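Researcher: Please translate sequence to structure tokens.
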Amino acid sequence: MMSDRLYYSDSSRTEFDAVVVEGRRVGDRPAVVLDASAFYPTSGGQPFDTGTLGEARVIEVVESESGEVLHVLDREIPAGQPVRGQIDWVRRFDHMQQHTGQHILSAALDKLCDARTVSFHLGAEVSTVDLAIPLSEMEIAAAESEANRVVWEDRPVRIRFVDEAEAAALPLRKEPDRAGTLRVIDVDGYDLSACGGTHVERSGAIGVIAVLSAERLRGGTRLEFVCGGRALRSLRRFREAVAGCIRHVSVAPEELPAAVERLQADAKDQRKLAKGLQERLAGFEAAALAAAAEEVNGRRQVVQAIEGQDQNGLKAMALAICSNPGFSVALLSTASPAVAVVARSRDVTLDSASVLKALMTEFGGRGGGRPDLAQGGGLTGELGAMLARTRELFGKGQA
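Model: Translation complete:
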């Protein structure tokens, strides 16, 4: 049985009376079919409504392959029982703002930029429209301004039902993908689109349409946008973020981009300076370690825990030592989990990668490398035990 979809003619309806026609299952949840329903099922890029049917909570609404509206519940309701449905208005109205806002934004993009909307998705935080062509920032801004002009004109948004012959005579923005009677959303002469979703009664109820971002996608453009209450929440988040940045750099809001650029340049200079100092320090430490190396089986061996160096620093030290002949080197950080670098001089036959692999087998972590140089991280053993095991592996000439 096909339910009477009450939202088709009145998107603002939040209460209704109905009778349970049939019980179903959707996954492991009970579901019911009603003789009439104001609940919107997920369809056309718009998510489902939530609310209640009597004492049962409606946790999802889906459309079956045969077109029935299935209300997924948190408890069973027997067939034949009368129920009162209650729609979560906050969620419904949010979806109405976003969906009608999308119609107007897509129409503005089509009229001003000849940018056809390929798809629409109404997300939990932001919505997206995918457009068939790439757009410039100037074009997007112009369409955004045009869309908001239509919103602020507070135009009536009408629901019309037309047959195929009538539809063929209408300037629909998009070719309908179904036959038979069509439900058309008319934004007072600005946009005509076949749509089964829920919409506001006047464009002014959208409040504002704000495009948050644009990205190139498959030769076209994807826009992220928000409307109404979502736009207000986004503004608050941006305002808080900007205020937080301003507190740290002590500049006016309009000077913030330049201040960030200066900070980035300063940070780049500081990183370059720090890298140079680290390399010099690594060279000094490497020379000291090489001078104090142990003599084992005719080769010099350095197995040490090093404080204050990251993996790059340990690697620089190991390579500096191994630039001299006859060295086997294993350097571990003192931080936990530890990073490790194993290296050898060209004239030494030790397989550094096998040594590291044996250490990771025993103490965890991930990494790899070549016979002359291997490095990894995430080793979680006791530092003394890891150093002792490394010496054992060096002593065996692990290959």
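Researcher: Any highlights?
Model: The two ends are 74 Å apart (CA to CA).
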